[in-house]
Design brief:
The protein is an alpha+beta fold and about 240 residues long. Among the domains are: about 55 residues; about 55 residues. Helix content is about 50%, strand content about 20%. It contains seven helices and seven strands, in the order E-E-H-H-H-E-H-E-E-E-E-H-H-H. The strands form two sheets. The chain has a five-stranded antiparallel β-sheet with strand order 3-1-2-4-5, covered by helices on one side.
Length: about 240
């Protein structure tokens, strides 16, 4: 006999391992007491000991046969301690079949067991993506981060795993997250952040003008290019911060 260990998850019994059931030695001893005396092995041993000319070798072999039979009787009539709530005692044959199936499970798959109306143990394999994170994009182009929470749940056809996202898609996600953060700000907070960005943009424009001049661009043209870049960036910031 063997013990199969199964944890209940989402209302299903999921196999997590196998073990040996613990025999109740006292109860088993009472159950098998005297049974060995009725066996042919024991009778052969008694006959060997009672022979007029005793042969030590024959007696030894007879006694070994008695011990082997005793172990067999104990196994056949063993009384086991009541298993824990997540354990079930099954035959060695059932355990061998289930263990082979368990060890051959594909990645991200679990073995589910249950009993039918006749009490026969049934098993089937079920996908397990619990904890797996994926991204989807809705009809408005908004990326949403999702996590698989239940057994048997499969990834949507249009899902994208984090490692499958392109640099461009990651950039979209980062920008959307930042926009969501900005949209959650109060009017005063948005105005304050925009003003900080405005000052930074103007400083960057001044540095750009100086670099253009150092590269041989005329001062008027350098100023025009730097200010055009600055105006474009500020227009984007006004849109992002909803500044009229």
């Amino acid at each position: 006999m063997k013990t199969i260990i199964a944890k209940e998850i989402d209302g299903l019994r999921i196999v997590v391992g196998f073990d040996r059931p613990v025999i109740d030695a006292i109860a088993t001893k009472k159950a098998v007491e005297g049974l060995i005396n009725e066996t042919s092995e024991y009778q052969a041993y008694i006959a060997a000991k009672s022979a007029a000319e005793q042969d030590v070798a024959i007696i030894g072999e007879a006694w070994q046969a008695v011990l082997n039979k005793q172990r067999e009787i104990v196994q056949e009539n063993a009384i086991y301690f009541t298993p824990k709530t997540d354990e079930t005692i099954i035959s060695s044959e059932e355990a061998e079949t289930l263990k082979a199936q368990f060890e051959a499970l594909p990645e991200k798959t679990v073995l589910v067991i249950d009993e039918d109306e006749n009490g026969t143990l049934q098993s089937n394999e079920l996908v397990d993506h619990r904890g797996e994170v994926y991204w989807t994009r809705d009809v408005n182009g908004i990326w949403r981060k999702e996590t698989v929470m239940t057994l048997g749940e499969t990834l949507p056809i249009d899902s994208t795993l984090p490692e499958e996202l392109t640099p461009e898609q990651w950039q979209e996600i980062v920008e959307q997250i930042e926009q969501a953060r900005i949209d959650a700000l109060s009017t005063d907070e948005r105005n304050q952040e925009f003003e900080e960005h405005r000052k930074t943009t103007r400083r960057e424009a001044i540095f750009m003008k100086e670099e253009l001049i150092m590269d041989g661009v005329g001062e008027t043209e350098a100023l025009s290019q730097a200010w055009a870049w600055s105006d474009n960036k500020l227009a984007e910031l006004r849109t992002r911060y909803n500044i009229v």
